[in-house]
Specification:
Pfam families: Abhydrolase_3 (PF07859). The chain is mostly helical. Helices cover about 45% and strands about 10% of the residues. Strand 1 (about 40-45), helix 3 and strand 2 (about 70-75) form a beta-alpha-beta unit.
């Protein structure tokens, strides 16, 4: 996602004058507060071309430092919310690559749910 576009969305979603550290989008204040929370395992989807990628990695690292189980679904060569854009924003053959990344993400989510929550959805 273009950083300027991300800033525009944030301006619409957050109270006037709020920053990216506002609790609406960054609910974590410190490692001790996170460590005290009972949480199930987390799966974080990160697209390698996403301008928010570094922030997502920071979130994963913070959760791990607090003792939380975090798995990352890394999707190479795609941008923020790529799974919603297949067939909308990208002409073929780039759309085929996006479709492959979407399929990989769905498989990863299914495996994660099966490993950690005792059920597996089959498509």
């Amino acid at each position: 996602m273009d950083p300027k576009l991300a800033d525009r969305f944030l301006a619409l979603a957050l109270p006037k004058g709020a920053t990216r550290d506002h609790p609406y989008i960054w609910p974590v204040r410190d490692d001790a507060a996170v460590a005290a929370l009972a949480m199930p395992p987390l799966l974080v989807s990160i697209a390698t071309l996403d301008s928010l990628r570094d922030r997502q990695v920071e979130y994963c690292n913070l959760m791990r430092r607090a003792g939380k189980h975090v798995e990352v679904a890394l999707s190479p060569g795609v941008d923020h919310m790529f799974y919603l854009m297949h067939g909308v924003a990208e002409p073929e053959p780039a759309g085929e690559d996006i479709a492959a990344r979407v399929a990989e993400l769905i498989d990863t989510i299914g495996g994660f749910v099966g490993r950690h929550h005792g059920c597996v959805a089959r498509l």
